[in-house]
């Protein structure tokens, strides 16, 4: 599994050196997926857009249903979940919150049986990583405040929130002229129940 995580880092460095431009999240997803298929041993499988409970039946009541990419080791001996964000249409605070939601999703997947998770956020708009407000959700992405605990939704329905068991620091790496990317690994979660939102609790009760 560590080989797969290292290959993700290699992919990002290689794509930056070659000047690969990602038009949207789908392009990033497919480029990374095919890279992993080409580089990993043949007995390792790479899956696109699969529901979490198709791998681990107890993975229910989560904040999301489908995983962007899944790497499964030989004989399903381990599973790596990969979530991606590649915003190209503004929505800066909303996308920041969605990124936090992806981290919570990965924590839930690890708690459900996945060996680890990986999160990649690729941006071209400097509003994600510099200038402007540095309070609230912006402080995590622009000022280095660690992401942990309860993160409130910054717009719309303010009663929605993300709960993170671990602590993460957003470290932006350069990608071309104005681009940046953030690569985060989720390899363990404190021994505690899944942090479900009210919406996901209702979903879980329907599935159980």
Unreliable stretches = 191-208
What average pLDDT do the residues reach?
90
Total domain units: 1
> Helix tally?
5
Q: Tally of extended strands?
A: 8
Strand percentage = 25-35%
Span of the ends, CA to CA: 31 Å
Task: Describe the overall structure.
With 208 residues, the protein is an alpha+beta fold. Helix content is 33%, strand content 26%. α3 links the parallel β3 and β4 (116-123). The chain has a 6-stranded mixed beta sheet with strand order 1-2-3-4-8-7, sandwiched between helices. A two-stranded antiparallel ribbon has the order 5-6. The chain has helices at 2-18, 25-39, 92-112, 138-142, 198-207; strands at residues 45-51, 66-72, 79-85, 116-123, 147-152, 161-168, 173-175, 179-186.
Keywords, please?
single chain; 208 residues; 5 helices; 8 strands; disordered C terminus
Summed up:
This protein has 208 residues and is an alpha+beta fold. It has helices at 2-18, 25-39, 92-112, 138-142, 198-207, and strands at residues 45-51, 66-72, 79-85, 116-123, 147-152, 161-168, 173-175, 179-186. It has five helices and eight strands.
